Amino acid sequence: MSKLEFTNAFSQFESMLFSFACHLTKNEDDAQDLLQETAYKAFKYRSMYQPHTNLRAWLMTIMRNTFINNYRQKKRRQVLNDKTPNNYFLNSGGRTVQNLGETEVTLKEVATLIDSLEDWMKIPFLMHYQGFKYDEIATELDIPLGTVKSRIFFARRKLQEYLRAMYQSNSVAEFLN
User: Fold this and answer.
1) Measured between alpha carbons, how far is residue 94 from residues 56, 78, 79 in Å?
2) Which residues, in sequence order, are CB contacts of 91 under 8 Å at separation 6+?
3) pLDDT band per the 50, 70, 90 thresholds, residue 164
4) What are the C-alpha distances in Å from 144 to residues 57, 89, 126?
5) Cα(114)–Cα(156) distance, integer angstroms
């Protein structure tokens, strides 16, 4: 089939393909994009089309497969990595996790535990808690980024140990004395 014959045959099915694309995407702009991508693939791979077979079914199959592949690709991209140097995650799913620890640990108890940390852990931890990014903390304290991350990690781990020990003995005053 020549390029001209294929173009004429494709144009006969264009409105039907747009209707099918609208049915799949439920959005006219997305349907137009899907139609364009289908046309691109159909013309790119027109040599694979077997003449005197069902062109309509071949085009609809291309469209359906393209839609499915795009859908799967969007599904995989729900969690986006931010490529900025501070390495944060975006759109992490929007799930809310209930934290029963909030009801058991008071802010005063946590502040007391943070104050009991050594300065080399406490300062980066408090800066991170106040909203500074890792690279900002590293610049402010003039230490490497990896050191900032490890100090914050060690501070968190130490606080977890303190809280675990404190609630096993059931008293902050007993633990700190």
Assistant:
1) 41, 10, 10
2) 78, 79, 80
3) confident
4) 60, 21, 17
5) 9
The string over 40-64, giving b where at least 16 C-beta atoms fall within 10 Å of a residue's C-beta and e elsewhere, is eebeeebeeeeeeeebeebbbebbe
Report pLDDT digits (tens) over 99-116.
655 555 577 778 888 888
Instruction: For the chain, list the strands marked E by DSSP.
Output: 80-81, 89-90
Q: Is the pLDDT of residue 83 over 70?
A: no
Task: Delineate the domains of the chain, giving CATH numbers in brackets.
Answer: 3-77 (1.10.1740.10), 89-176 (1.10.10.10)
Neighbours of 94 (CB within 10 A): 6
**Whole-number Å distance between alpha carbons of 137 and 117:** 18
Long-range CB pairs of 9-12, under 8 A, 24+ apart, other chains included:
9/55, 10/39, 10/42, 10/43, 10/55, 10/59
Query: How many CB atoms are located within 10 Å of the residue 137 CB?
Result: 23
Q: What is the pLDDT of residue 98?
A: 64
